[in-house]
Amino acid sequence: MPFEPKDIETSIARINAELDHIKDGLRLLGLKQCSCCNKFFLSQDGKTLFDAGQLVCYDCLQQCWQQRSPELSVEQRLAIEHKLLRWLVAYHKGKVIRHAESMPPAAAIELKMVVACEQCAGTGQSLGGACHNCAGRGNVWVITLRPELQ
After folding, report:
1. What does the DSSP assignment read for 49-110?
2. What number of CA atoms fall less than 13 Å from residue 30's CA on the CB side?
3. C-alpha count within 13 angstroms, C-beta hemisphere, residue 141
4. Model pTM?
5. Backbone phi, then psi, for 130, in 5-degree steps?
6. Nearest one of 101, 87, 99 to 55, comparing CA atoms
7. pLDDT above 90: residue 109
8. N or C: at which end does the chain have fewer Cβ atoms within 10 angstroms?
9. Is the pLDDT of residue 34 over 80?
10. Cα–Cα distance for residue pair 31/29, rounded to 1 Å
11. What is the pLDDT of residue 31?
12. Per-residue pLDDT band at 143 (split at 50, 70, 90)
């Protein structure tokens, strides 16, 4: 006895409603969902998900940022980059690299992102000359090392 299209639509609507109730319950328990991979994380302290208008887990961060950053205004991007740098340093043992010669070997790096220099706000200029923090480039790298190498 085949299903009627109306029965299938009703079943799908019921399943979707049940899934919404389950998601609501998970949120009540303190779990939040990554906007990229849709996995749930316990995120009461802010360390598991980065909040830049959308919650993103560490594993999805680089891919999501590459997709989202071109859509932002310069001011929005700078603000989020500063927040991102601080989040990576505070919660994921991120290291700020100011000069290319200080960069660890590529095999040791798990995540590598270019962010605007906080000192000169990405201009490369500070006090009438080249910014000493970024050597006039206007940006620095924030990296995390592979766990086995930390």
Report:
1. EEESSSEEEGGGHHHHHHHHGGGS-HHHHHHHHHHHHHHHHHHH--EEE-SGGGPPPGGGEE
2. 6
3. 15
4. 0.79
5. -65, 140
6. 87
7. yes
8. N
9. yes
10. 6
11. 82
12. very high
Cβ-based burial of 117 (10 A; exposed 0-12, middle 13-18, buried ≥19): buried
Pairwise CA distance, residues 95 & 121, whole Å: 19
In angstroms, the CA 82 to CA 86 distance is: 6
Q: What is the pLDDT of residue 9?
A: 86
Distances (CA, A) of 115 to 79, 82, 86, 106: 10, 7, 11, 18
Exposure string over 38-72, b if 16+ CB within 10 A, otherwise e:
eebbebeeeebbbebeebbbbebbeebbeebeeee
Nearest to 98 by CA among 79, 85, 84: 85
**DSSP of 10-21:** HHHHHHHHHHHH
